[in-house]
Specification:
The chain has 766 residues and is α/β, with parallel strands linked by helices. It is 59% helix and 12% strand. The chain is built from 28 helices and 17 strands. The strands form 3 sheets. It has an 8-stranded mixed barrel with strand order 8-9-11-12-13-14-15-16, surrounded by 5 helices. Strands 2-3-1-6-7 form a 5-stranded mixed sheet, sandwiched between helices. Strands 4-5 form a two-stranded antiparallel sheet. It is elongated.
Length: 766
C-alpha cells in the first residue's frame, strides 16, 4: 500500500509541474487570440474569451487539486485555495452570463459577491499555509509593523489616492470599488508581515505571492478607475494581469514547503527599518487630501511610532551588547582576559608582521588541591596565580585564563632566550608559598612555548603547538619547553598520514613481507614471521615505524590487525594449495588481543580458509600480562582451545615473570634481538640467553632467536641449544609472492623440507 501511495504521489507531482507550464501557455495563447480578434465580430470575441476563461480555470483548479493530493501536510490550505478559486470562477461565469452586453452591465453585478468571497478564501489560505505559529517577541512585532506600515504607505499612495475621486456614485457601489484595491494591499501586507514574523520560510514563494497580489491590485485599480459611468469596462490588459496573478499564486501554492532550515534567519537590516520610516514621513509631509489620501495618515503615524519603539529597543540592545561584549572578553574569577579575548589578540597579531610568541601554562597538581580542599580553595589558588603573573610581567604582555587551571601568555617576541627567561620568572613567582585553608602550598607549573612561523594565519595552530609543548614539559618535568616539530605527534603531516592510513586499510594498500625461520639443527625452513608494510601511492613502501604510531594514536590498530590477520590466513591457504605447509607467526598488540573483536574474526577467517589452526602462531608481548593478567590468562587459554599457537615476543625486555611461563599455555619464547646482538660482546647478555634457553628446554618450550646477523652468532646460539634462528643471516623479509620461490630454492639446495615442530609444548630432541 505504501509503495502504491508513493507512486500516486510521484505521478501527481509530475502532473502538477506539467499543468503549471500548460497554464502559462493558455494565458499566452488566449491573450494573443483576444488581441488579434479584438476588431472581429463581438460574438466570436465573446466566445474566444469565454473559452479561454473556461480552459484557464479548469487547469488551475485541476492543478490545485492534484497538489492537494501530493502535498498531504498542506492539504487543508490547498483545498481552501481551491474553494477560493472556484468562487472566482463562478463569479466570472455569473458576470459573463448576466447580460448579452457585459460592457453595459451595471456595477455591482450579482457575481461581485462571489469575487469578494473568493478574496476571503485567499486570505484564509495565506493564514493557514504557514510553517510556524506566531511566536515573535516585541521587537519582531515592531519590525513587522514598520515594514507593513511602510508598504501600506508606499502602495496606498499610487493605488488608493485616486480611487475615491475617480469613482462615481455612492453607497454600495462606492464601498465595493474602494474595497477591492484595499483588499489587495491588505493581502500583500499579510504576506509581508508573515515574512517579517518568520512564519514563512520560503522567500521565493513569498515573492511569488506578493507579485501575484500586486498584479491583482493593479488590475483592480484599473478596473475601479474605469467605473466612472457605473458600468463594467472589460479590458484585455486587466484580464492578463488577473490571470498572471492567479498563475503566480497557484505556482507558489504548488511548490513544496521548505522543511529543512539550511541557515539561520537573518534580522532585518537598518535600511529595511529606516526606509519605511522615511516613506511614512513623506506621506505625512505631502498629506494628499484627494480621494482616500487622508486615510494614509493613520498607517504613516503607526509606522513612525513602531519605528521609534524599535529604535528604543535597539539602543537598549546596543548598550546591553556592549556590556555583554566586555563581560564576554573577561574571565569572571581572575578578571583576566578569557579565551575569546586571547584568540582575538592572537588573530590581530597574526595579521601584522610583528614578532609573536604564545605560552600555555598549566598548574601542576591543581586537581589534588581542588579535590582535597574544595573548589573555594582552588579558586583562591587560581586568583593568586593570576595576580602574581600580572605583577611580575610588563603591561605589554597579555595574560589570559583559558579555563580551568590553564593560562595563556602572549608576547611580542621571538627570541628563545627571552621567552625561556620569562617562563622561568613565571615559574619562580608561582613557586612562592601560598596559604590556602591554613595550609602552605607551593604551586608548580608546566609551560609550553611556541613562536609564529611564516605559514601561521590562524590562532588555532599557535594554540595547538603551545599545547603540545606544554604536555611535553609536563611529561618531562622540564618546567618550560619550546615547541619541537620532531616531538609533535599531532603535526599536520602526521595527521594527514593518519587520515591516509584510514583510507589505505580498506583500499588494500597494506602488504605483507615474510621473514623465514629455520630449524637450528637441520637448517630446514620451519616457519615465517609476517611483517606488515604500507605500499603508499606517493611515498612508496613504508615500514611499520613510519605509520604504527599514527595507527595507535588514531585508533586504527584494530582494523589494521584484522586486515593483517586476513592476509596471513589467505597466504597460508594459497601456500597449502601449492603444496607448502609453513608455520606463520603474526604480532598482536595487547589492546587488540584483549579487545574481544580481533580473535573471533581471526578464528572465523581460519575456518573459512580451511587451514590448520596449528599453522598459525600469535606473538604476544609481556605487556599483556601486566594490565589485566586475569583477562589475559583467559584469552590465551581460549586461543589454545582453538589450537592456535602462542609465542612470547621480545622476551626479556618486559615484566619477565616466570609465573606465566608456568601457568599459561605458551609454546614459544622469542628472545629479544637486543640480547642476541650483544651476546658476543657482553658476558651478562650471553649468560641471560644461555640460561633462558636452558629454562625453556626444561619447560618444553620452543625457543626462537631473532636478529641473527652473522654466522658466528648463529653458531653460538646453536651450541646453546636454540631451536629456531631468524635474522638477516638467514634471510631478509620478502614479499609474499617471493616466499614460495625462496622456500623451494632452499629446499632443493638443502634436500630438506618443512619442519612442523611439535605444538604440544614438548621440545624435540636434536
Amino acid at each position: 500500500m505504501s509503495s502504491g501511495m508513493e507512486r500516486r504521489d510521484a505521478w501527481a507531482v509530475r502532473a502538477v509541474r506539467l499543468l503549471g507550464i500548460a497554464i502559462w501557455i493558455v494565458i499566452s495563447v488566449g491573450f494573443t487570440l483576444n488581441l488579434v480578434g479584438a476588431n472581429g465580430p463581438s460574438d466570436m470575441v465573446r466566445t474566444a474569451h469565454m473559452l479561454t476563461l473556461a480552459v484557464f480555470f479548469v487547469l488551475i483548479l485541476l492543478r490545485i487539486a492534484l497538489a492537494a493530493v501530493a502535498r498531504r501536510r498542506r492539504r487543508r490550505a490547498l483545498w481552501v485555495l481551491f474553494a477560493a478559486l472556484t468562487l472566482w470562477a463562478a463569479g466570472s461565469v455569473v458576470l459573463n452570463a448576466s447580460a448579452s452586453e457585459p460592457d453595459l452591465t451595471q456595477f455591482p453585478a450579482p457575481g461581485e459577491w462571489l469575487f469578494l468571497a473568493s478574496y476571503v478564501g485567499i486570505a484564509g489560505y495565506l493564514i493557514i499555509d504557514t510553517a510556524h505559529r506566531l511566536t515573535a517577541a516585541v521587537d519582531g512585532w515592531l519590525e513587522a509593523i514598520v515594514v507593513c506600515g511602510g508598504t501600506a504607505c508606499l502602495a496606498g499612495s499610487p493605488l488608493l489616492v485616486q480611487v475615491g475621486g475617480a469613482v462615481g456614485g455612492h453607497g454600495v457601489p462606492l464601498l465595493l470599488a474602494i474595497l477591492y484595491p484595499m483588499i489587495d494591499v491588505a493581502l500583500v501586507l499579510l504576506v509581508v508581515g508573515q515574512v517579517m514574523l518568520r512564519v514563512r520560510r520560503s522567500l521565493v514563494k513569498s515573492a511569488m505571492l506578493c507579485l501575484g497580489l500586486a498584479l491583482f491590485a493593479i488590475a483592480d485599480l484599473n478596473f475601479v478607475l474605469n467605473l466612472s459611468d457605473g458600468t463594467y469596462g472589460f479590458n484585455l490588459v486587466d484580464g492578463l494581469l488577473w490571470a498572471s496573478g492567479f498563475a503566480l499564486i497557484v505556482e507558489a501554492a504548488c511548490r513544496p514547503r521548505a522543511e529543512v532550515l539550511k541557515a539561520l534567519p537573518r534580522r532585518p537590516g537598518a535600511l529595511l527599518m529606516v526606509g519605511p520610516a522615511f516613506i511614512a514621513i513623506a506621506v505625512l509631509a505631502v498629506r494628499p487630501n484627494s480621494g482616500l489620501g487622508p486615510y494614509l495618515t493613520w498607517p504613516a503615524v503607526l509606522t513612525l511610532l513602531a519605528a521609534g519603539g524599535r529604535l528604543v529597543l535597539a539602543l537598549r540592545e546596543a548598550k546591553g551588547a556592549a556590556e555583554a561584549f566586555a563581560l564576554s572578553r573577561t574571565d569572571d574569577l581572575t578578571l583576566l582576559p578569557n579565551r575569546r579575548s586571547v584568540i582575538a589578540k592572537l588573530d590581530a597579531e597574526l595579521a601584522s608582521d610583528r614578532p609573536l610568541a604564545l605560552m600555555l601554562l598549566d598548574l601542576d597538581g591543581f586537581k589534588d588541591v581542588n579535590d582535597t580542599l574544595g573548589h573555594a580553595a582552588g579558586d583562591s589558588v587560581l586568583q593568586l596565580a593570576a595576580h602574581r603573573m600580572r605583577q611580575a610581567l610588563p603591561a605589554s604582555v597579555m595574560i589570559g585564563r583559558l579555563g580551568g587551571d590553564e593560562y595563556a601568555i602572549v608576547m611580542a617576541s621571538d627570541d628563545a632566550l627571552v621567552l625561556l627567561e620569562t617562563a622561568r620568572l613565571i615559574l619562580e613567582v608561582l613557586l612562592q608559598p601560598t596559604l590556602v585553608e591554613g595550609i602552605e602550598l607551593s604551586t608548580n607549573a608546566s609551560i609550553g612555548i611556541t613562536v609564529r612561523s611564516e605559514n601561521d594565519s590562524q590562532s588555532v595552530e599557535l594554540l595547538r603547538r603551545a599545547d603540545v609543548a606544554m604536555y611535553q614539559a609536563k611529561a618531562t618535568r622540564a618546567g618550560a619547553v619550546l615547541y619541537d616539530v620532531h616531538s609533535d605527534d599531532f603535526s599536520r603531516k602526521k595527521l594527514q598520514l593518519a587520515e591516509e592510513l584510514r583510507k589505505a586499510i580498506p583500499e588494500g594498500q597494506l602488504v605483507l613481507h615474510y621473514q623465514p625461520q629455520i630449524d637450528a639443527a637441520t637448517q630446514r625452513v620451519c616457519g615465517l614471521e609476517a611483517l606488515v608494510r604500507w605500499q603508499h601511492p606517493q611515498r612508496g613502501l613504508l615500514h611499520p615505524i613510519a605509520f604504527l604510531a599514527a595507527a595507535r594514536r588514531e585508533g586504527l590498530m584494530l582494523p589494521l590487525s584484522l586486515a593483517v590477520g586476513r592476509m596471513v590466513v589467505e597466504d597460508l591457504r594459497r601456500w597449502r594449495v601449492n603444496g607448502l605447509e609453513p608455520r606463520v607467526s603474526l604480532n598482536c598488540a595487547p589492546p587488540e588481543l584483549l579487545s574481544g573483536v580481533f580473535l573471533p574474526q581471526l578464528y572465523e577467517a581460519i575456518a573459512q580458509a580451511k587451514v590448520p589452526a596449528e599453522s598459525l602462531v600469535i606473538e604476544v608481548t609481556e605487556d599483556c600480562f601486566i594490565a589485566e593478567p586475569a583477562r589475559a590468562r583467559t584469552i590465551l587459554r581460549d586461543i589454545r582451545a582453538h589450537r592456535v599457537q602462542i609465542a612470547i615476543d621480545d622476551y626479556g625486555t618486559g615484566f619477565s615473570s616466570l609465573s606465566y611461563l608456568r601457568d599459561l599455555p605458551v609454546q614459544e619464547l622469542k628472545m629479544d634481538r637486543s640480547f642476541i646482538a650483544a651476546m658476543n660482546t657482553d658476558t651478562r647478555s650471553r649468560m641471560i640467553v644461555a640460561s633462558t634457553f636452558q629454562m625453556a628446554q626444561a619447560l618444553g618450550l620452543r625457543t626462537v632467536a631473532e636478529g641473527v646477523e652473522n654466522a658466528a652468532t648463529a653458531a653460538d646460539l646453536i651450541a646453546m641449544g636454540v631451536d629456531v634462528l631468524q635474522g638477516y643471516h638467514v634471510a631478509k623479509p620478502m614479499p609474499a609472492a617471493d616466499v614460495e620461490f625462496w622456500i623451494r630454492d632452499r629446499t632443493t639446495v638443502s634436500d630438506g623440507g618443512f619442519d612442523s615442530l611439535p605444538v604440544d609444548g614438548q621440545r624435540r630432541d636434536s
